[in-house]
């Protein structure tokens, strides 16, 4: 398992945090995620044999939250 965090723009509220987290959690291999609109960041725990940080970042971006 690997922990990482990355920056995302456009999160304004708790609903945005949930959207980002559900986008990350939907990626196969993601174990957990925690988004912070205040920090504009997302922490993820994932199985690096099943996915990669890049795939998770792309999934979040595809939900409409541009990567910073
Ligand atoms: Cu929002």
Strand order of the largest sheet: 1-3-2
Beta percentage is: 25-35%
The CATH topology is given as Alpha-Beta Plaits
CATH class: Alpha Beta
The distinct bound ligands, ions and cofactors come out as:
copper (II) ion
Estimate the global geometry from the Cα principal axes: globular
Oligomer: single chain
- The overall pLDDT, averaged over residues, is 98
Poorly predicted ranges (pLDDT <50, ≥5 residues)? none
**Total number of domains:** 1
Q: How many beta-strand elements?
A: 3
How many helices? The count is 2
**Secondary-structure content class:** alpha+beta
Please, could you describe this protein's structure?
Strands 1-3-2 form a 3-stranded antiparallel β-sheet. The protein is α+β, with helices and mostly antiparallel strands. The protein has one domain (2-62): Alpha-Beta Plaits. It has helices at 14-25, 53-62, and strands at residues 2-7, 30-36, 41-46. Helix 1 packs across helix 2 (53-62). It starts with a strand and ends in a 6-residue tail after the last helix. The radius of gyration is 11 Å and the shape is globular. The site of copper (II) ion has 4 residues, from helix 1. Copper (II) ion binds at residues 12-13, 15-16.
């Amino acid at each position: 398992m690997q922990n990482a965090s990355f920056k995302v723009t456009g999160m304004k509220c708790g609903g945005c945090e949930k959207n980002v987290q559900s986008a990350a959690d939907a990626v196969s291999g993601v174990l957990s995620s925690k988004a912070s609109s205040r920090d504009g960041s997302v922490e993820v725990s994932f199985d690096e044999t099943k996915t990669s940080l890049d795939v998770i970042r792309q999934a979040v971006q595809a939900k409409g939250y541009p990567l910073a």
